[in-house]
Design brief:
The structure is a single chain. The protein has two domains: 156 residues, Up-down Bundle (Four Helix Bundle (Hemerythrin (Met), subunit A)); 203 residues, Rossmann fold (3-Layer(aba) Sandwich). The protein is built from twelve helices and 17 strands. The structure holds 5-S-methyl-1-O-phosphono-5-thio-D-ribulose (MRU). The site of 5-S-methyl-1-O-phosphono-5-thio-D-ribulose has 20 residues, from α3 and β10.
């Protein structure tokens, strides 16, 4: 079932123009999760109404909701939807169901650490309310999901404030995939500094690489930046190096799905090639991510699981086959950019530049970011 959330219902309508909300929780304990169906953007705008965990899981799996922070928030509400109907169970049975639902959602996509982070947060909040019984646990799960949602908006807003000064006035900015408002609860990560810079009067042009095979750059980044009145040009993924060579790109900024303790960053496939081109052309290459995207349990990227998606996504375009069935296709959804290629990581807690274990630890231990300088 689908519906739409009117742009006028959003408090940030002034920044995003008519961009529809990525997700929202409507109502209270008996409410429902609305997810913008990103598989049909920009041609159709419709929100999927989720009243059960299976609908949320499917939406994450097929990328109706996508982007590391947004899938975390969706999964957080998904945990609640998965247990809400069971609040009359004995606490012991209820906890078993909670564990099952948490595992089910965590397995939907493997690379973005925000998913497991958010599910863990809701699970812990529910377990902490165990003494109050099953209904209290369910209510605590909803409250935790709402808090994760609120915190995501706040983290993304801060990333914009931390990173806006990096955006070159009068220059070209490359971004890959979609790490904007559509990939988060609002503002985005990589695009958040661009919104803040735009609002403060900086003029720049954004190059959005199209991001084969699912075209998040072409379909989503172009749609959201254009809705906000930001100058955006879509280019083929293969055009990046030559535009850098021609001096048209002064900065690159991308999002992240998981960042290891040393700064190695997993992000959408193609990010690594853009970072290599940036290094060669001395274009500063930045990553932007909330602290929930760091996985400090991993020393380096070698342990980050890379999602392998169906070969059909490569083989077909617009529902039509373009590749002979005699050829195989491969579809790794993410790659890893080594820390050495990244000039800085913009987080809600400050800017880690240079990208070293020590600097990352220092920034993340800041707690709340207290403003520039
Ligand atoms: O497969 P997707 O569309 O979920 O991939 C999204 C990305 O790679 C984003 O860059 C990343 O999740 C950061 S979103 C703020």
């Amino acid at each position: 079932m689908t519906t739409t959330i009117a742009a006028s219902q959003r408090s940030d309508a002034a920044i995003f123009g008519n961009l529809p909300a990525t997700l929202d929780w409507m109502g209270d304990f008996d409410g429902e999760l609305l997810l913008l169906d990103q598989t049909i953007l920009p041609n159709e705008v419709a929100h999927l109404r989720c009243n059960d965990v299976e609908t949320v899981w499917e939406a994450i799996k097929v990328l109706r909701v996508r982007g590391a922070p947004a899938i975390g928030v969706a999964a957080a509400y998904g945990v609640f939807l998965g247990i809400r109907g069971d609040w009359r169970l004995e606490a012991e049975q209820f906890v078993l169901k909670l564990e099952k639902v948490a595992q089910y959602l965590s397995d939907a996509r493997p690379t973005a650490v925000n998913l497991a982070w958010a599910v863990r947060g809701v699970r812990s909040a529910a377990l902490a309310a165990r003494d109050g019984g099953s209904r209290a646990m369910a209510e605590a799960a909803l409250a935790a999901a709402r808090e994760i949602h609120r915190e995501d908006i706040e983290m993304c807003r801060r990333i914009g404030e931390v990173g806006a000064h990096l955006v070159p006035d009068g220059g070209g900015v490359l971004t890959h995939c979609n790490a904007g408002a559509l990939a988060t609860s609002a503002y985005g990560t990589a695009l958040s500094p661009l919104y803040v810079a735009h609002r403060s009067g900086r003029r720049f042009r954004v190059f959005a690489s199209e991001t084969r095979p699912l075209l998040q750059g072409a379909r989503l980044t172009a749609f959201e930046l254009a809705s906000a009145g930001i100058d955006v040009t879509v280019i083929c993924d293969g055009a990046v190096a030559s535009l850098m060579h021609a001096g048209e790109i002064q900065m690159a900024i991308v999002g992240a799905d998981r960042i290891a303790a040393n700064g190695d960053t997993a992000n959408k496939i193609g990010t690594y090639s853009h970072a290599l081109a940036a290094k060669h052309h001395e274009v500063p290459f930045y990553v932007a991510a909330p602290h929930s995207t760091f996985d400090l349990s991993l020393g380096s990227a070698s342990e980050i699981p890379i999602e392998q998606r169906s070969e059909t996504e490569v083989r077909e375009l617009g529902g039509r086959r373009w590749i002979t069935s005699l050829a195989r296709c491969r579809n790794p959804a993410f790659d890893v950019t080594p820390a050495g290629l990244i000039r800085g990581i913009v987080t809600d807690r400050g800017l880690s530049e240079p990208v070293t274990i020590e600097k990352i630890q220092e920034i993340l231990s800041n707690g709340a970011w207290r403003g520039p300088g």
